[in-house]
Design a protein that fits this description.
With 188 residues, the chain is α/β, with parallel strands linked by helices. It has a single domain, classed as Rossmann fold (3-Layer(aba) Sandwich). A 7-stranded mixed sheet has the order 3-2-1-4-5-7-6, sandwiched between helices. β6 and β7 form a beta hairpin. The radius of gyration is 15 Å and the shape is globular. The model has no long low-confidence stretch (mean pLDDT 97). The protein binds S-adenosylmethionine (SAM). S-adenosylmethionine binds next to α3 and β2.
């Protein structure tokens, strides 16, 4: 994806991302994972990030987006539902039923990316990590949003703790100007 396409997608649906950080993330994907076969996104809101995941998804790839709000899921269905690769689940991502429903949608297929951007409190971030990490391929990625957000210091702490483990390496994108912070955990 080049910068022209990035800008066009970034400006087409309201997205809750710092543009410089998200462009760094997309450049990282361009270089390291230009095509994705499977992704779970926790927290879809308006579908701003979904638009990018759809673009990176292979022709037979699978996307599962989870949001607790009916409005977010209804909007996503209306906007993206004609693409058979795109699947949506309404519910609390931290509940076992929702994680199980996600597994049924994947049908045994392992994913490349788990994007965590739902409830930002410590218990939910931890639950999202624990409940969905086993859907990842051996070299899958877990992308956390808001690892440098002043209102959510627990996310950065949790990310730092995980990236210090021997099974992961971590990469951070933190803009100098009004950072939210994006962290990628890569399974070794
Ligand atoms: C920051 S927004 C997501 C923004 C979107 N990824 C983007 O960058 O444009 C967070 C979303 O998470 C959803 N959410 C909050 N708690 C949740 C939960 N427990 N389970 C699933 N979704 C949740 C909210 O309804 C909201 O739509």
């Amino acid at each position: 994806m080049d910068k022209v396409q990035f800008d066009s997608l970034f400006n087409s649906i309201e997205i809750i991302q710092n543009p410089n950080e998200f462009w760094e993330l997309i450049q990282w994907f361009n270089k390291n994972r230009p095509v994705i076969d499977g992704i779970i996104e926790i927290g879809i809101l308006n579908g701003g990030t979904m638009l990018f995941w759809q673009e990176l998804l292979s022709s037979d790839g699978i996307y599962a987006g989870i949001d607790i709000e009916k409005k977010a899921v209804d909007n996503a269905k209306a906007r993206f539902g004609s693409d058979i690769r795109m699947n949506f689940i309404q519910g609390d991502s931290s509940s076992y039923n929702i994680s199980e429903e996600c597994g049924k949608i994947l049908g045994g297929k392992k994913i490349d990316v788990l994007f965590i951007d739902g409830n930002h409190s410590a218990a939910f971030i931890r639950a999202d990590y624990l409940n969905y990490k086993d859907y990842l391929k051996p070299n899958g990625l877990i992308v956390f949003h808001d690892i440098h957000h002043p209102e959510y210091p627990e996310i950065g702490r949790f990310f730092n703790k995980l990236s210090a483990l021997p099974e992961y390496s971590g990469i951070k994108f933190i803009d100098k100007d009004k950072p939210f912070g994006i962290g990628i955990l890569i399974k070794k």
